Amino acid sequence: MFDIGDKVVHPTHWAGQVMGIKEQDLLEQYHRYYVINLAVDDRTLMIPVSNAKEIGLRSISREAALSKVWRTLSGAGESLSDDYKKRQKRVQKVTTQPLSFRATERKPVLSEVEGRSD
To answer: Crossing angle of helices 106-114/63-74, nearest 10°?
Structure first.
């Protein structure tokens, strides 16, 4: 999935760079880990290769994708129904879509959840 030198983003530890892939013995089984040097501080993070995707480790977004996200975020959010069940159904629909699609709907979801109509 990732190679040494790739720049990646972890959902809670932010951006970093894959510095190596290490095998480590854990309970008499060898597991492979991405060794990631975090950009924010001088910490190193080890993420199991087998569940990097489930954890949310991803590549840095391309500039074109970021432009689309910024355009969406700067637009007006959509309004939600006053009915609780309808509102929850809409929020559930948006938040269960793949992350790449959700990024374009982030502002409406945040506005809806926070009760704002911006």
So the answer is: 40
Residue 38: Cβ within 10 Å count: 15
Beta bridge partners of 36: 18, 45
What is the rounded distance in angstroms from the CA atom of residue 44 to the CA atom of residue 16?
9
pTM, 2 dp: 0.55
Of 82, 18, 76, the closest CA to residue 47 belongs to 18
Ordered by where they begin, the domains of the chain are 7-59 (2.40.10.170), 63-114 (no CATH)
Which residue stretches of 18-102 are H helix? 52-55, 63-74, 84-95, 99-102
Q: Which two tokens stand for residue 58?
A: 């991803």
pLDDT grade, residue 32 (50/70/90)? Answer: very high
